[in-house]
Amino acid sequence: MAKIFSIQKKTDEHFVNLYEFDGINTKGHESHYMVATRARSKEQLKAVTHDYSAADAVVIYSIYNDQVVLVKQYRYPIDGAVYEFPAGLVEEGETLHEAAVREMKEETGLELKLLDVDPLYEKPRFTSVGMTDETNAMVYGYASGTISDAFAEPSEEIEIVLADRQEARRILEEENVALQTAYPLSRFVSDEAPFGFVQ
Question: 121 and 159, same structural domain?
């Protein structure tokens, strides 16, 4: 297995930072590898702690009156919109489920009633492990209430989208869709029960 012999912090930002990893693999190849991370300090890096149990962010797969709740959000890395599930960072001292309820309210104005699912389906997973140590956990539930952007952060450019199966299929075929959204959305399109694959 490769060995890391040096880690240097390259940026000091609030939400995302870059670290340069210097290491050598079992073939003797030396690497200088840039890693994007939510870690504010070197001591918080997953490569240092080896603790993969806590999610950095939560992703919410929810149903509202037989429609799936999506957000169409502008993202700077692609200079365009991408369809995603409502999502956001888990704040310090907050549980995964508390973060999900808060983020759902902030991004959509809707209330979230969480499903009780096997923890296997809520386990934090890596997003794009070739460039980041970020982990996301998905939660599942039913949304209710009135859609509103009154609680949204001013930095976010979000359109709330309620999609039935036909519209969800069109989105998958024609639009930019985040990977962590695409798989459950394809299950929504093809399965008779929206949460059949987690129950």
Answer: yes
User: How many domains, the chain?
Assistant: 2
Shared-domain flag, residues 63 and 92? yes
Residue 27 DSSP label: T
Distance CA 63, CA 143 (A): 6
Domain with 27 in it: 3-49
3-state secondary structure of 111: strand
* The pLDDT of residue 153 is above 90: no
Q: Which residues contact 35 (CB under 8 A, 6 or more apart)?
A: 18, 19, 20, 21, 45, 47, 131, 132, 133
Decide: 42 and 70 in contact? Cβ < 8 Å.
Answer: no
Q: How far apart (Å, rounded) are the C-alpha atoms in residues 130 and 135?
A: 12
pLDDT of residue 152: 84
**Cα–Cα dist 98/15, whole Å:** 20
- Looking at the DSSP bridge assignments, the partners of residue 73 are 82, 158
| Rounded CA separation 108/152 (Å) | 8
The answer to whether the CB of 82 falls within 8 A of the CB of 123 is: no
Q: Are residues 25 and 99 in the same domain?
A: no
Question: What is the per-residue pLDDT for 60?
Answer: 98
